[in-house]
Amino acid sequence: MKRLLFLTIVLLFFGLFLFAWLFYADDKQKLSKDLPWKIEISETGATKVFGLDIGRLTLEEMMLSLHKIADVSIFEARDGALSLEAFFGKTRLGIFDATLIADIDADQVKLREFLTQINPSDKKSTPSGHWKYDLAESSLKQANKMRIWRLVYIPSANYEAVTIRKQFGEPESTETLPDDLVYWFYPKKGVAILQDPNGREIFYYVAADEFDRLKAALPRKKPEIK
Length: 226
Prior knowledge:
With about 230 residues, the protein is α+β, with helices and mostly antiparallel strands. The chain contains six helices and 13 strands. It has two domains: about 1-35; about 35-215, no CATH class.
């Protein structure tokens, strides 16, 4: 009887150990995918990072993947140029928190059309000098079906240059900006990284075939989170 009880306890302990090990291994594998340097270029040409096919997926697909609703707004620059952004705010990816912003691919004509559905008195100013407009409900339905062309990832933790070089490798080229800011460019990975020795780094992801568009659109000074 004692022997049977002993064997039962051993088998139960072994079963719990095996279950815990398998759960840990699976969880660890999942977490390892949610790192900013875990990048794949898919068959469709998308830059796959955080489980997202940047450059190919829609806003609706991104919200479903992250299980999070974004705040979608139009921003009007001082020169009148418009852009459409989906702000996810602080988001947990694996074991890390980061601010996520998705830039939606919409032409100026469509954005002007969206503006006609917004009360002009509802616009808000931003620290960067842009005007911000929250989309009308009818426009939101259209925006949900539009493509995400760029993902902006701003981690809560600072990444040292040595860490980025170790994980991403040497950049193909760099660009030095005022205030000791430096862009590191990885066109084959579809990534540009803004190195800031006095603050948090910013990671920009696009499909590799849109890297020239990314470089042209990058701010030439430290951007403010609108």
